[in-house]
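SAMPLE LOG
Freezer: B-3
Tube label: C17
Construct: single chain, 162 aa
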Amino acid sequence: MISWLAKLRISTALDAGKPLPESLRRAIATDPELAYFARRAEEMGQALRTPPPVAPAMHDSIMRAVRASARREQPRRAPVAAWWWVTTGAVAAVAVVFIWTTRARQASLRGQSLDGARMVLELSEHLPSDMPSFVMSPLSNEWALVDRNLQDTKQVLLASLP
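STRUCTURE (predicted):
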């Protein structure tokens, strides 16, 4: 039998307070390691089940101290001061972020020129006349390439005939 499985069965039986099964008792009798484990587990179980003796004087003094500390009220500090610091810090952080973003946006707007807008306006004047050729140009180019491929294929086929 596997040693750890036997140890688990011993521990489970001792925890439940049941007697060990006969097969487990035979294994303990033949294996010194299991016998040592069973003896130590039994001793530990007994030690944990019986509480250590407490001196009555010590128990009474401990209980008096617990009652006295429960009666005393702890002075409460006002949480307003702590919240004031947190709120002030948060407002300061938001103000710094707002000022930084505003200045960064102004700097980026100063650096831009109106060339892009002027170019769009110029293109919009020619849009009605240039749009059909602009839209159809890629398709026309593709058809021209297909036609050239057909012509080249025709020449190859005609050249290969006897």
